C-alpha cells in the first residue's frame, strides 16, 4: 500500500527501507533534502492517492505538533495521520479530537526497536479506532518482526504511546539492573573476567535478554568502557512513567530509582550529599572531605 513518511532519521530512514523491501510504495519527506523524496509536505500530500496514510516519525513535542497541524491543513476527509514518535500519551486524545471535525483519522503508535529495527522488525503498540487500525494493518505487518509477537492494538487514542512509555520505564529499570550488577562485578576481588561473565549469561541464564546481548556487544568493542563517561540523558518517557505511578499510587521503586540515577549521573558533585556531609559534621563533628 501507499504511505507518506515524515522524518527520515535513524528510525524513519530504516522504516522506509523496511517498508519498501516489503513492497510498499513509500514517499518520504525530511528537512534534509539528500534523504527526502519530495521538497515539502504539500508535495508529499500531492503524491499520495486518497485516502492517504501519513506516518510522522519526528521528535516528540512541538516538532510533532507543528507537523501534524501543517498536515491537517493539507489533508482531506478520510485521510489518516499516524504519530510513531515518542509523544506523550496525553497529547493523543486532544489531537484526535482536533482532527475529527475535518474527517481526518488519527492513530498513535509506540515503536520500539531502535537502529536495529530494519533487520529485526519493530515492536508496535497502537492506539485508535479498530477500523482505522485494520486499514493500516499491511503497514504494521511489514514493520513488525516476522514472528507471532511484536504487535498490539493496545486500546483507544493514547494507548499506543502509553504502552511505549511503560515499555521505556521498564527499559530504564532493566538497564539500571545490568549496570549495577556490572559495577559490583568490577568491584569484586574474586571475579577477574567481567566481560566473560556477562557473555556467559547470554544463553541459558534467567537474565538473558537483548539488552544483555547489547551490553556484551559494547564490552566487545570496549572491554572496560573506558571511552565512555557515566553520563546518561533521558527524553521523557521514564519521567512520565513515574508521574503515572504516582497518579495511580502504584509503587514503582525500580523505575523511580533508575530515572533519579540518570539525573545523578549528570552531576559533577552532589549538592544533596554536600548537605548531608555538612549536617553530619554539624551534629556529630564528623570529618568531611574538602
Ligand atoms: O524502544 C526503543 O526503541 C527505545 O526506547 C527508543 O524509543 C529510544 O532509544 C528511547 O526513547 C530512548 O529513551 P531515553 O532517551 O529516555 O533513554
From TrEMBL:
Keywords on record: Gluconate utilization, Oxidoreductase
A molecular-function term among this protein's GO annotations: NADP binding
Gene Ontology biological-process annotations: D-gluconate metabolic process; pentose-phosphate shunt
Domain 6-phosphogluconate dehydrogenase C-terminal, residue spans: 160-290
A matching Pfam family: NAD_binding_2
Domain of life: Bacteria
InterPro entries named in the record: 6-PGluconate_DH-like_C_sf (IPR008927), 6DGDH_YqeC (IPR004849), 6PGD_dom2 (IPR013328), 6PGDH_C (IPR006114), 6PGDH_NADP-bd (IPR006115), NAD(P)-bd_dom_sf (IPR036291), Pgluconate_DH (IPR006183)
Family stated for the protein in its record: Belongs to the 6-phosphogluconate dehydrogenase family.
UniProt protein name: 6-phosphogluconate dehydrogenase
Highest classification ranks of the organism: Bacteria, Bacillati, Actinomycetota, Actinomycetes, Micromonosporales
